[in-house]
Design brief:
Layout: E1 14-19, E2 25-32, H1 55-58, E3 65-76, E4 81-92, E5 99-111, E6 115-139, E7 142-168, E8 172-183, E9 190-199, E10 204-215, H2 226-235, E11 238-251, E12 254-264, E13 278-279, E14 284-285, E15 290-299
Antiparallel strand pairs: 1-2, 2-3, 3-4, 4-5, 5-6, 6-7, 7-8, 8-9, 9-10, 10-11, 11-12, 12-15, 13-14
Length: 301
C-alpha cells in the first residue's frame, strides 16, 4: 500500500511458477513488468543503494505490474549467467482509465556478480482518456479543481526500449540506465537516463546521481489548435536532476538514507511536475527549479 493511493492494499505479486527439468521457468498471474534494473525491488528500498530509483527514468512509466505470464531460461557459463526472459499480458494504469493490452516484451541480462548488463524491449496497445486536474475560477479569489481530458488514446501503439549496466565489487558502485518510450498520436516520446556512483566505507555508502528526462518529438506536436496547445503544456517536459546521498546500514536489515536532489533546466516546460502550473497571463510556469530533501528508513524482515 502507498500513501499517494490513500493506503489502498493491492497485490503487486500473486503468481504460480514452475521450473521444468530442462531449466525453463514459467510464471503466471500478477507479475512485475521487468522494464528496469530495479523493477523487482521497487518496493524493497533496502535492496537499492539510493533513497529512491531516479524518477527521471522510473517515473516515466505509470504502471509497475501486469496480469499475464512470463518464461525465462538461464544459461550458465563458467563464471557468469545469461538470463533470457519473455513476458506478455495486460495492465491498468493506477488511478487512471488508461488500459494496456497486448503487452509483450523480452529482456536479456548477463552478470558475473560484479558486472551486470541488460537490455529490454516491450510494446503494448493503450486505450482510454488521459485526464489532468485543472484549476477553475468560480469567482474572483475562488477556485476549484476539475478533471480535463487532455488526450483520448484509441488503441495506440506504445513501445519501450532500455539498456542498463552496473558494477559492484563490494566497495565501488556504478549504475546507469537509459530508456526511450514512444507512443503514437499526440502523446510524447520520452528519453531518460541516469548515472549513479557510490563507495562503501564500512556501514556508510555515500553516492551521487545525475539524471535527465526530455520529450523528443515536441516539433511534431506543434500547437495547431487550442487542444494541441493544452497538450503541449501538459506533456512537454525536460529536466536535469542532481542528487547527493548517504546510505547508513545502522543495524542488520535496517538502512537509513539521506538524500538531497536539485532539479532544474526545465526549458519552456513544467519539468514534468504536475503541480507546476502554467500561468497564461505571464506565459511562465510557477517555478523553474526545485530542491527535495529525503530521510528514509528501509527495513526487511
Amino acid at each position: 500500500m502507498r500513501g499517494k493511493y490513500d493506503w489502498e492494499v493491492e497485490a503487486e505479486w500473486a503468481y504460480l511458477s514452475h521450473r521444468f527439468e530442462n531449466g525453463v521457468k514459467v510464471r503466471g498471474g500478477k507479475l512485475r513488468v521487468p522494464l528496469f534494473m530495479y523493477s523487482d525491488y521497487l518496493d524493497v528500498g533496502y535492496a537499492q543503494p539510493f533513497a529512491r530509483p531516479p524518477q527521471e527514468v522510473y517515473g516515466a512509466i505509470p504502471f509497475s505490474s501486469y496480469t499475464g505470464a512470463g518464461v525465462s531460461y538461464d544459461v550458465e557459463y563458467d563464471d557468469s549467467t545469461l538470463t533470457m526472459q519473455a513476458f506478455g499480458g495486460e495492465s491498468n494504469v493506477k488511478n487512471s482509465a488508461v488500459e494496456l493490452s497486448n503487452l509483450m516484451g523480452a529482456n536479456l541480462s548477463w552478470t558475473d556478480e560484479i558486472w551486470t548488463l541488460r537490455a529490454v524491449y516491450a510494446q503494448a496497445q493503450l486505450d482510454g482518456p488521459i485526464v489532468n486536474e485543472v484549476d477553475v475560477a468560480l469567482a474572483p479569489g475562488v477556485n476549484t479543481q476539475a478533471n480535463y481530458t487532455v488526450l483520448e488514446l484509441d488503441d495506440d501503439k506504445g513501445s519501450f526500449v532500455g539498456v542498463g549496466a552496473s558494477y559492484d565489487n563490494g566497495e565501488v558502485i556504478a549504475i546507469t540506465e537509459w530508456t526511450r518510450s514512444e507512443i503514437d498520436n499526440a502523446y510524447p516520446d520520452i528519453d531518460s537516463g541516469y548515472l549513479t556512483l557510490g563507495y562503501r566505507i564500512k556501514e556508510f555508502t555515500p553516492y551521487a546521481t545525475v539524471a535527465y528526462t526530455k520529450t523528443q518529438d515536441n516539433d511534431e506536436r506543434l500547437p495547431l489548435s487550442q487542444a494541441a496547445a493544452i497538450q503541449m503544456v501538459a506533456f512537454n517536459a525536460e529536466r536535469m536532476a542532481y542528487s547527493i546521498g548517504l546510505r547508513w546500514d545502522a543495524i542488520d536489515n535496517v538502512a537509513i538514507k539521506f538524500d538531497v536532489t536539485y532539479a532544474d533546466d526545465f526549458g519552456d516546460t513544467s519539468g514534468g511536475f504536475l503541480g507546476n502550473n502554467f500561468d497564461s497571463s505571464t506565459g511562465k510556469f510557477t517555478y523553474d527549479d526545485t530542491l527535495i530533501y529525503t530521510v528514509k528508513f528501509d527495513a526487511v524482515f
